[in-house]
Each structure stands twice: as C-alpha cells, then as structure tokens.
Amino acid sequence: MKRWFKSKKQKREENNAKRIAAFNSSLASIHQRTDDKNPNVSFKHSGQTGDIIYSIPAMLGLANGKMINLYINLDVEINLSGLPYGNKMFTKEAFDLLLPLLKIQSYFGEIEVYKGQHIDYDLDKFRTLPFIPVAGCLQRHWFHLFNTTFDLSQTWIKNVPLNDNFKNSLVVSRSFRYRNPTIDYRFLSNYEDVKFIGTDAEYQDFKQQVPECKRIIINDFLEMAIAIFSSKVFIGNQSFPFSLAEAMKCKRVLEICPETPHVIPHGENGFDFYFQKYFEAIIKNIYQNG
Question: How far is Cα 148 from Cα 64, in angstroms, rounded to an integer?
C-alpha cells in the first residue's frame, strides 16, 4: 500500500524548496550597485564584530579594486543569548574598539556610524538567506547573496605589526558561545607562556583549567590583532578573535562547535578539530616542527 503520509525528510525538503523559490523571486529587489561612476562602493552592516570581519572578502569582491565605504548600524536588538553586548548586535563601544584596526586597511575609505548614508549593498540581508545559517562557510553567505567571490586562502586583514613580546606565546581565546563540550584545555599546562585574550569572565573560566595562564589586556581590537598575529600559535573557538586570525592567516587552531560548524579555516597555517586527541596532537606537532 502506498504510504499516505509524508516523512519528515519530505516535508523538510518541500519547505526548503519553497523558501529557496521565494527567495529566488526576490533577488531582483536585493539592493545592488547602480552608480558605477562613483569611485567608492558603499556597504551597510549591523552585525557583530566577527560578522563584519567575515564579510570583508565579499566587500572586496564587490568593490573590485575600488575604495570601500563602510557604514555600521548601531544598537540593533536581537533575541539571542550570549552576545558580548547584551541584546545588541553592535554598539558604539564596539565601533570604537574596531575602528583602529579597520582604519589601517588600505581598501577602506569612510568608516562611519550609519545615519542614512547612501549604500550600494546592505550586508544585513545575508540573514534572510533561505538556508540553514549555522552550517557551511560563514564568509560564503555573502558570496551567495550578491553573486561575488574572493580567494579565502588569501589575507584580508593586513598591515598589522608584529610584537616580539608574543613571539613565544601560545595565545588562547574561548568565548562562552560556540564551545565543543567534549574539549578540555588542561593539557596546555604542559606548555610555557600560555596567554588568554578575552573578557574577564572568560579568563576566570579558562583559569579553572589552565591556572598559570596570563591575561592579555587590550585597549582596542588592533592590539588584539597584534597579539594574535605575533603569537607562536593562536587557539580559538568560533568567536571574534578567531575571525582576526583567519583574516590574517597566522598559525591558528579552531575549536569547532558541533551544533554550529559555520567557520572553516582556509589557506596555510589553519587547523581545526572536533576531538580532544587530535587537538593535543595538533599543538604537539606545532611545537615540535615549528
């Protein structure tokens, strides 16, 4: 007898097809650049700091050699727990911390708080894409939205100076979001000069596993980038500091969140792990072979 009911898989596939078809028909309304004579290409973003860093490859692809104007929308509220700024996606505090790092990137023209300026592309529209946002490659979401691309094996955060004070340091960042619950960092006590970069609450939590680690105090995100870029190796989970490591292509190791595996290292010096045994092997190999 033919089954009269639809399986969960069939229903899911049908719903996904409907969402994609509906989005397909709306692509013409996605804000696209119309003034090719303008020497700059303008973007609006309301996302978190990591989202901004991960969207830069799409900006570079769309700008195609022209200067980029970036307008950041502040205080957009979202119903999501664990954000660094409460229920706000981005704040003036975050803007002031990020600005020094963005200002040394040669491709940026204006970097301002969004107050209704003309924009060519609204980067926030990636949140309307009709597929699961918690998997895949976060950077590529904007590629799919605007039909552009960029070589993700190449650096896109540049001009960050080295600081020799961190050249022998193993620098770690571990936010409360995006954790792999099976991972234990206690083995890092076998290594010298372990430093932590993050909030005080994150640091106090990490010290429970690696008591001797020292905290790096920063004044802005350029100083954070310098510490990460200058380190012997950086270990992070899928939070903002790892976006900097990925953008700079320094030696980096990613703790993958099993429920939200949407960050993928590209290019040289990038490692990632799900399992404790391989995490420890990666770090051992880096220290043995440089």
Answer: 10
